[in-house]
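User: My collaborator sent over this chain with a note saying "see what the structure looks like." That's all I know about it. Can you take a look?
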Amino acid sequence: MSFKDFYNKDVVPKLKEEFALGNINEVPTLKTVTLNVGLGSGIKDAKFLETAEQTLRRITGQQPVKTKARKSVAGFKIREGNVIGMKVTLRGKRMWDFMEKLIKVSLPRVRDFRGLPAKAFDGRGNYSIGLKEHIAFPEISSDEIELIHGLQVTIATSAKNDAESKSLLTHLGLPLKKDGKKNA
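Assistant: Without extra context I'll predict from the sequence alone. Here is the result:
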């Protein structure tokens, strides 16, 4: 059974009952998942740019888009038009497949993982996850990597508020901590 089938058969009825929704179209769902790698201090290093691009391509199966600086910032030595990151936006089948892989394979592989913070919602039903190492994904072999970098995953939902979004993600299996408390 695909992850989208799991959502339709198991999660939709639970959400419909939990929020007393009459119409099935009102039930929150996933819209997009965006993966982003900021180049940071590796902005001048062409090898870092290539590594980030290869990583995103392997993880998602899509060609990443280069994000460019909109204006110059002298303090960070960035000029307008410089490449400052890479991103991939997933929709449809690839999005559902990625979410299944993230929840069932990648997050359990993160070192010292104790759950995701429950306070990373933006107020509009979207959730962001920051990963310090990209090697948590099964497509990345730890033998062949030279540079370890982080990446950010943003999950955009159709939920109207954080409570609906949190319930959706919890029912999908995303391991959120209770009350957003940090573990030592």
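A starting point for your reply to your collaborator: The first helix runs from residue 3 to 18.
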